[in-house]
Description:
The protein is α+β, with helices and mostly antiparallel strands. The chain contains 6 helices and 7 strands. Helices cover 56% and strands 12% of the residues.
Amino acid sequence: MIDHNHGRDGGPHGGQWRRGPFSVEWSFDGPDRGGGGGGRGRRMFSSQELRLVLLKLIADEPRHGYDLIRRIEELTAGAYAPSPGVIYPTITLMDDMGLIGEQQSEGTKKRFAITDDGTAYLERHGEQIGALMARLAALAEHHERTDSEAVRRAMRNLGEVVRGKLRRDDVPEERRYEIVAMIDEVAQKIERLK
Length: 194
């Protein structure tokens, strides 16, 4: 994979995206990892970084906790969604720090808006916020690219299997028709997907 800002397989602080079975996480191979090599993953954001991302999103428009989770998931094209167990304590801390304040809202969900102190905090950390938002965009790009690569890999695999099967002289003609029918059936199912 290529991170356009940091070269091949690299990223901020010598890390890279790694895809696990259920998620994508930022992994560190360098000294910033806190223990040298090895490549074990860490959380997507430190607590201060998460605060900055959430504050930026709240500055864009007043939001509640679930909306913040959903917005981060949108920004990463579905590759990452922070857990409520991380989001809600961070919102509480930001409220205690005076960076955000509860806004009148309909329903039971508390919406928060940025305060003047929060705006000043964002201005002091503008460069870091830009880098964090770029990290989210890079994760989205990586996720979308990997998903496309998976489709291409599956198509190559199908082609190779079919060609390999049909090259054999001992494949009866009725088996060949069966293979064609299976491929046509899959194509029709894909075409009907919404």
